[in-house]
């Protein structure tokens, strides 16, 4: 199954956090990272005070179900 994962962070060196998240996905033997978009910087919505976000999209191939993939992504986010 092809899947697209939206990535985003605005705290503690966000670019490094996104790179680590993609590395963690790639190290999972059931997930193949096929492509990664460029990184984009955006302001928080509604002019809420805070640091800008770094966002990207990762294209993967996996045999995981949607719920299992969500669980993997949540574990990576918790790290």
List keywords for this structure.
79 residues; alpha+beta; 4-stranded antiparallel sheet; 2 helices; elongated
Whole-number average pLDDT? Answer: 94
Quote the beta fraction.
Answer: 25-35%
Tally of strands:
4
Write down the overall geometry: elongated
Helix tally equals 2
State the helicity in percent bands.
Answer: 25-40%
Roughly how many Å apart are the termini?
25 Å
Biggest beta-sheet profile: 4 strands, antiparallel
What is the alpha-carbon Rg in Å?
A: 13 Å
Unreliable runs, pLDDT <50, ≥5 residues?
none
User: What is the H-and-E element order?
Assistant: EHEEEH
The protein's oligomeric status is single chain
Computed structural class: alpha+beta
Describe the structure.
- The chain is of the alpha+beta class and 79 residues long.
- Helices cover 34% and strands 34% of the residues.
- Strands 1, 2, 3 and 4 form a four-stranded antiparallel β-sheet that branches.
- The radius of gyration is 13 Å and the shape is elongated.
Helix-strand blueprint:
Layout: E1 2-9, H1 14-27, E2 31-36, E3 40-42, E4 53-62, H2 66-78
Antiparallel strand pairs: 1-4, 2-4, 3-4
Q: What would a concise description of this structure say?
A:
By secondary structure, the protein is of the alpha+beta class.
């Amino acid at each position: 199954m092809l899947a697209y994962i939206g990535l985003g962070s605005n705290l503690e060196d966000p670019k490094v956090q996104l790179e680590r998240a993609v590395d963690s996905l790639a190290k999972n033997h059931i997930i193949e990272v096929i492509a990664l978009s460029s990184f984009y910087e955006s302001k928080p919505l509604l002019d809420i005070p805070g640091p800008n976000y770094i966002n990207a999209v990762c294209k993967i191939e996996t045999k995981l179900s949607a719920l299992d993939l969500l669980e993997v992504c949540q574990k990576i986010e918790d790290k």
